[in-house]
Design goal:
The complex is a heterodimer. By secondary structure, chain A is α/β, with parallel strands linked by helices. In chain A, 29% of the residues lie in helices and 24% in strands. Chain A has 12 helices and 21 strands. Chain B has a domain of 214 residues: Hypothetical protein af1432, CATH 1.10.3210. In chain B, 62% of the residues lie in helices and 0% in strands. The longest helix of chain B has 24 residues. Chain B starts with 8 loop residues before the first helix and ends with a helix. The chains are: A alpha/beta, B mainly alpha. At the A-B interface, helix 3 and helix 4 of A face helix 4, helix 8, helix 10 and helix 14 of B.
């Protein structure tokens, strides 16, 4: 390849795919370099997809009456039907999309030799070089072992090795408080595993609205799960009986608790997946959280190298990754361009039972905001409004919560006012509208709105007397 | 640089990967008739060897990490030959520490129950790989199976996949070979057929997978292990468990090469000089990954020597 590329994208997940296709659409000469044969991203192939299948299996499991008494071990693969077929279909679709857009797809591992030269090593060991005016890193993130707990993929697992186990464990300690930890802990608890969730802080899903963490907690406890608040996994190793031994140390300095589960799943920390990229030689270093620091136009400390997606710590929302990809490509092709696209909020999903979905601001992260909740037995929606009466957050739970919220997300993304929402006739907004109407009533009557999380802990959600429950 | 001598290099070559490249049917009428005999075997065939009781027990123990070490010790104690084998393996260079192990309790403490379970499982399955009059062939298949299990396990760990299915799948991936050979010899004798050794060997190459699948179903092995046995020769034909199947196929390929090559040729001086492996690309194993797995060869050889002794 003699003529330099306009853009080389490294990474074939949602962010990388979107960046490459957007660049091609804008007329750039672009190549996408992915070290795995399957396009689509490891996060999707090894996390999201098997997670979705397991979630569906758990919902099916809960919908039919289970025979009482002892049952044999459950083969995990039987809970994940068509996993390979779905993976392959997705990868083929991605490859076809790249081809259609005229993106050169390179199956190789990349290493940056300098700010414009990339060394490629094919899986067969052949080496080539490509030059590119701009480079976009979209390599995603990966789990990292906390100190004292080396992930051996045998008894000490990460999400990927848990989801590729032969059998479901009978007892498990899950360490973490984020979406991965909640997903795994919740689904295993619903399948009858004895689950202990070790939470480093004092709340679950700390980045999301408290209602979602509390809703998860209520169902997790109802399924028999055990919580260890403010406990950090400080040691985990395979024990002599084929299971695991782990120590959970309270953050208040109390003595550590020793547990001997079948398996330990570490879902505490992640970091940018950048091994072998050679970024340190260019002076690009990870920040304290383990991600690539970037400026407002996604540039790293090297001006022509940008980073997007999970590699910069923005989570695994495909919509957010695509949005970042489009912005980054525009800045790469026109460095002086001004970003005119508004800030967007994207739906984040927790694949638990019930499914949790969120878009926009949590109530407790916006000063002066007020919220209203509408719910029925199995699902609910919380609407958060700013002091300026603008809808700033929607937080939902229940079956298909994510797809329901996708239809309503524009209310937050476009900054709808309370009045605008109340007067809308869009049937998909019925529940949000109901919450908005209640908020309006509350505002007029100056009635205080009470949502007591402690009620949720007991599995009961109490609403104000005029609530829609 | 590893300077390990190969183990019985002369016969292993034909025992594994020929099946992947041979046609599934034979034009030779003699071979075709023998393959047809194997084709009649199904999970309900009375001639299939029953699942050894120890295998059933050990599979249950492997599925139940809460099972205590006493249960395993009792199981092994109940079979003096098995107990002697376990102690011999535990005292072999592959596992031995500074002090000699004289009791099973010491073996559990030293090796851990997971490793001991693997040793016991392999010892229990080893019986299926014994074919009277053809001990050398069966023994080479067995050594290759152990090597496959260990290389597949190393591969799964490197790729951040769960290692259980890799080990069990590797150990059992070629279980149809000795059973097919044993069954053909029995039928030839029973029907007083006149067959050449070459025809028998070709028929085993062509028909062993079906026999292995029948045995796996009869033994009620996990679905992933059944898929490995069915598709290890051509993982692209599998609709499920492709990753586990490819991992075992790669383990088999590495084991085959390790057992048949001089070790100095196995690991090159530089990644660029690495002779490609057929299944490494599908697993996205880059040369440095493959070399890291090949560097396990001395440990794997030591384990093979101990477990197949």
């Amino acid at each position: 390849m003699r003529q330099p590329l306009d853009i080389a994208v490294i990474g074939g997940g949602a962010a990388g795919m979107a960046a490459a296709m957007e660049a091609a659409r804008l007329g750039a000469r672009v190549a996408l370099i992915e070290q795995r044969q399957l396009l689509g991203g490891a996060a999707w192939h090894r996390g999201r997809l098997p997670g979705q299948l397991l979630q569906a299996a758990v919902q099916k499991h809960l919908s039919v009456e289970q025979p009482t008494g002892e049952h044999g071990p459950i083969e995990l693969a039987k809970l994940l039907p068509n996993l390979d077929a779905t993976r392959n279909a997705r990868a083929a679709t991605c490859a076809a999309a790249l081809h259609e857009h005229g993106v050169l797809r390179i199956h190789a591992r990349a290493r940056l030799l300098n700010r414009t030269t990339i060394e490629l090593t094919t899986v067969g060991g052949n080496q080539h070089r490509v030059e590119a005016h701009a480079i976009i890193l979209a390599t995603g993130d990966r789990p990292r072992s906390p100190r004292g707990a080396r992930i051996d993929h045998e008894a000490i697992l990460d999400m990927g090795s848990m989801l590729s186990s032969v059998y479901l464990p009978r007892s498990v300690v899950v360490a973490g408080a984020g979406s991965s930890a909640c997903e795994m802990a919740g689904l295993l608890a619903h399948m009858g595993c004895e689950v202990t969730l070790a939470v480093p802080g004092d709340r679950l899903l700390p980045q999301r609205d408290r209602i979602l963490g509390d809703t998860f907690l209520a169902t997790f406890r109802a399924a028999g799960g055990t919580l260890r608040w403010q406990h950090i996994l400080t040691h985990a190793q395979r024990d002599g009986r084929g299971g695991a031994r782990c120590l959970l140390t309270p953050t208040d300095g109390s003595p550590a608790i020793e547990l001997n589960p079948d398996r330990v799943v570490v879902a505490t920390q992640r970091k940018a997946s950048l091994r072998s990229l050679g970024l340190d030689t260019l002076g690009i270093a990870l920040n304290g959280r383990g991600y690539l620091p970037v400026g407002p136009k996604f540039h790293t400390v090297v001006p022509n190298i940008q980073a997007i997606g999970a590699a910069i710590g923005s989570g695994n929302s495909p919509q957010r990754a695509r949005h970042q990809a489009k912005q980054a490509v525009r800045f790469a092709l026109s460095p002086h361009a001004v970003d005119t696209t508004p800030d967007r909020s994207f739906v984040d999903v927790v694949l638990s039972v019930p499914e949790l979905a969120t878009v926009g601001m949590p109530e407790d992260k916006s000063t002066g905001s007020i919220a209203r909740l509408v719910r029925d037995a199995d699902s609910g929606l919380k609407l958060v409004m700013s002091a300026e009466e603008q809808i700033i957050g929607l937080h939902a739970w229940g079956a298909q919560a994510a797809s329901q919220l996708e239809k309503q997300a524009h209310v937050v993304q476009d900054g709808w006012s309370l009045t605008q929402l109340v007067s809308s006739t869009d049937p998909s907004l019925a529940r949000a509208r109901q919450a908005a109407e209640l908020l309006q009533t509350d505002r007029r009557s100056r009635r205080p709105i009470e949502l007591d999380p402690s009620d949720l802990l007991a599995g009961v959600i109490r609403l104000p007397s005029t609530g829609a429950a | 640089m590893i300077r390990e001598a190969p183990i019985k290099a002369e016969k292993v070559a034909s025992e594994d990967h020929r099946a992947a490249t041979f046609p599934r049917e034979s034009n030779d009428p003699e071979v075709a008739s023998l393959v047809a005999l194997l084709g009649r075997i199904n999970a309900a065939s009375p001639s299939l060897p029953p699942r050894p009781e120890v295998v059933a027990e050990i599979m249950t123990l492997m599925q139940d990490p809460r099972a205590d070490s006493m249960r395993l010790a009792r199981l092994v104690h109940g079979d003096p030959a098995l107990a002697a084998h376990v102690l011999r393996v535990a005292n072999s260079p592959a596992w031995r520490g500074r002090a000699r192990i004289v009791t099973l309790q010491q073996a559990v403490a030293r090796l851990g129950m997971g490793a001991l379970q693997e040793i016991v499982l392999s010892a229990a399955i080893a019986g299926v790989y014994q074919v009277k009059g053809h001990e050398d062939v069966a023994s080479n298949v067995w050594r290759h199976a152990i090597g496959t299990a260990l290389f597949a396990k190393a591969t799964a760990r490197l790729r951040r996949r769960n290692v259980e299915s890799a080990f069990i799948g590797g150990l059992l991936h070629s279980v149809g070979r000795p059973v097919a050979l044993w069954e053909l010899l029995r039928l030839i004798k029973k029907h007083r057929m006149n067959c050449t050794p070459v025809a028998v060997r070709s028929a085993v190459d062509l028909g062993h997978e079906r026999v292995g699948m029948a045995l796996a179903a009869s033994w009620k092995l996990p679905e992933v292990v059944q898929s490995v046995i069915a598709h290890v020769a051509d993982p692209s034909q599998a609709t499920e468990h492709q990753d586990a199947i490819r991992t075992v196929a790669f383990g088999a390929e590495v084991a085959h090469r390790a057992l048949t090559q001089v070790s100095g040729d196995l690991i090159p001086e530089s990644p660029e000089a690495l002779v490609p492996f057929r299944h490494s690309q599908a697993l996205d194993l880059y040369p440095n990954h493959v070399i890291a797995i090949l560097e396990q060869t001395p440990k794997v050889f030591a384990a093979i020597r101990a477990m197949a002794a």
